[in-house]
Amino acid sequence: MSTKLKKRYKLHFSSLRDLINSWNLISDSPPDEFDSVNHMCLSFLYRGADEFKLREAIHHDLSVNYGFSMDKQESELLTKQVIEWWLDNR
Predict the structure, then answer these.
(1) 51 and 72 in contact (C-beta within 8 Å)?
(2) Residue 58 CB neighbours (<10 A)
(3) The pTM is what?
(4) Cβ count near 69 (within 10 Å)
(5) How far is residue 10's CA from residue 20's CA, in Å, rounded to a whole number?
(6) DSSP state letter for 62
(7) For every one of its 90 residues, what pLDDT tens digit does the chain have, with 9 covering 90 and above?
(8) I want to staple 49 with a disulfide (CB 3.0 to 4.6 A). Which of 3, 37, 53, 89 is the partner?
């Protein structure tokens, strides 16, 4: 990975972490609690995944890996925020 790409990724990672932490999924959780979600989202976004694939990945990660009881509408709302963030920050 080039130095320029690493720097860009770090900036994206930090900014997206702020967004994900603003969801307050677990009160008083450490700032890095959802870094796996952050990495997953960035991986999908960098590869140009569509909104459906990103939504399914977010839903799966939060419901299966973290054990949240989420419906598809909640996942859709979070995905829209991530997509909006990406459009503003890429």
Answers:
(1) no
(2) 22
(3) 0.91
(4) 7
(5) 15
(6) I
(7) 689 888 999 999 999 999 999 999 999 999 999 999 999 999 999 999 999 999 999 999 999 999 999 888 999 999 999 999 999 998
(8) 53
Close Cβ partners of 22 (under 8 Å, ≥ 6 residues apart): none
Residue with tokens 């969801």: 23
Beta-carbon-side half-sphere exposure of residue 48 (alpha carbons within 13 Å): 0
Spatial CB neighbours of 69, under 8 Å, sequence gap ≥ 6? 63
77 C-beta neighbours (distance < 10 Å), count: 12
Number of Cβ within a 10 Å radius of residue 10? 10
Q: Indicate the length of the chain as a whole number.
A: 90
Q: Which two tokens stand for residue 56?
A: 């399914």
- Residue 7 is encoded by which pair of tokens? 């720097």
How far out from the chain centre does Cα 8 lie? 16
